[in-house]
Design a protein that fits this description.
Elements: H1 4-10, H2 19-22, H3 27-31, E1 39-42, E2 48-51, H4 87-98, E3 106-109, H5 116-126, E4 134-138, H6 147-152, H7 169-173, E5 178-182, H8 189-201, E6 203-204, E7 213-214, E8 218-223, H9 227-232, H10 238-244, E9 247-250, H11 260-271, H12 282-290, H13 296-311, H14 323-327, H15 347-356, H16 361-368, H17 372-380
Parallel strand pairs: 3-8, 3-9, 4-5, 5-8
Antiparallel strand pairs: 1-2, 6-7
Helix pairs in contact: 11-13, 16-17
Protein name: Sigma-54-dependent Fis family transcriptional regulator
GO molecular function: ATP binding; sequence-specific DNA binding
Keywords: ATP-binding, Nucleotide-binding, Transcription, Transcription regulation
Length: 383
């Protein structure tokens, strides 16, 4: 094979031309030339070239490995990757950094989906406890009657249905590491009293046991409620509130962040497939910036994942977004353009359709239900 520069140098078309007819040498003689040493070649015309022979490199045969593939550990989350210029998030990050190795409890406050657990994971991975366990507990997801046994553990036979071997509980599993208590405002009052004792004495007493087990851990709590109001209503212990709230950090909702656009692009980068490089269209970015995002980052991630599946290799456009995205904008969903019934192998018809849409390759690709790369390849067949 030869490239266009070879065509220009030789002054002839190389399509379906054999080596013997192009050069005054047989193919066997050419292949017997030593690699790396220059030699002369003359074409059927008067052109004479100094040449070097480079043989294709053959990939070495690798033995097949039949063991299970090793799954790579997820990349660590850095604190600086949590913001892209928003002053409120940056302030929370800087304050948290200063308390990384201090025995001062943190309380993270923010709406559902703002990334409280991601924030706490980043704190854990940036601390000296990063090699130890990170245990996350959603206090709202555990039935009230099981909260104490799940957190503090239990002795065998402590209650009907208990595991015969007992359980050490989530607090002891987090020993030497970090325990994250999410939605702590939903924790039952009796459990709050036992947790307060753990924080004060740094010991855990399993359900049904009289033995105390010392623990060394950092406890970080989070809530989407105002715990101060919960205290006033008698739904949260005042002494526990002051024990867990050494420093309260506020994570703003997505609609109030000043770095939204950069955040949308980062989430797209996080969820896309390697072949999906086209990005978010300006129309979609404008819609994203207008959207109130009641589900915050969790909702954005879901919308982008659906849109990527719909768009495939095309830029994400409004018609790729799920219908419920438009409900919060009080807009009608954008209909996907009606697909054209065109034979992709008919290059002349494709060119006519391209002229009809003013040469807009992206729009025609959407109408045909194919990627731009596929359409480009079909159109090049006529060249």
């Amino acid at each position: 094979s030869a490239n266009r520069r070879a065509d220009n140098l030789l002054g002839i078309s190389l399509s379906r031309v054999s080596v013997e007819s192009l050069f005054k040498v047989s193919l066997l003689e050419l292949l017997n030339q030593p690699e790396g040493l220059p030699f002369a070649l003359q074409t059927s015309g008067r052109n004479r070239f100094q040449c070097l022979l480079k043989r294709p490199k053959q990939a070495s045969i690798q033995p097949r490995v039949f063991t299970e593939p090793v799954v790579a550990a997820p990349a660590a989350i850095s604190l600086n990757s949590l913001h892209f210029g928003d002053s409120r998030v940056e302030k929370a990050v800087r304050q948290a950094e200063r308390l990384l190795e201090k025995d001062i409890p943190l309380l993270i406050h923010g709406e559902t989906g703002v990334g409280k657990e991601v924030f706490v994971k980043a704190l854990h991975q940036a601390s000296s406890r990063s090699k130890q366990a990170f245990i996350a507990v959603n206090c709202a997801a555990i039935p009230a009657e099981l909260v104490e046994s799940e957190l503090f553990g239990y002795e065998k036979g402590a209650f009907t249905g208990a595991n015969q071997k007992g359980s050490i509980g989530l607090i002891r599993k987090a020993d030497k590491g970090t325990l994250f208590l999410d939605e702590i405002g939903d924790m039952p009052l009796p459990t709050q009293a036992r947790l307060l004792r753990v924080l004060q004495e740094r010991c855990v007493q399993p359900v049904g046991s009289s033995e105390l087990f010392p623990v060394d851990l950092r406890i970080i709590s989070a809530t989407n409620r105002s715990l101060r109001e919960q205290v006033q209503l008698g739904r949260f212990r005042e002494d526990l509130y002051y024990r867990i709230g050494g420093l309260t950090l506020e994570l703003p909702p997505l609609r109030e962040r000043s770095d939204k656009e950069a955040l949308f692009k980062r989430l797209w980068e996080q969820h896309r497939e390697p072949a999906q490089w086209a990005g978010l269209s300006q129309e979609v970015l404008a819609l994203f910036c207008r959207h109130p995002w009641p589900g915050n980052l969790r909702q954005v991630s879901s919308v982008i994942q659906v849109a990527l599946a719909m768009a495939e290799e095309q830029p994400i456009r409004p018609e790729h977004l799920p219908d419920d995205f438009f409900v919060d904008l009080e807009m009608e969903p954008v209909e996907t353009p009606e697909q054209l019934a065109v034979d992709l192998n008919d290059v002349e018809d494709l060119n006519r359709q391209l002229q009809a849409v003013g040469g807009n390759i992206s729009y025609l690709a959407r109408r045909l239900g194919v990627s731009r790369n596929t359409l480009y390849k079909r159109l090049r067949q006529a060249e």
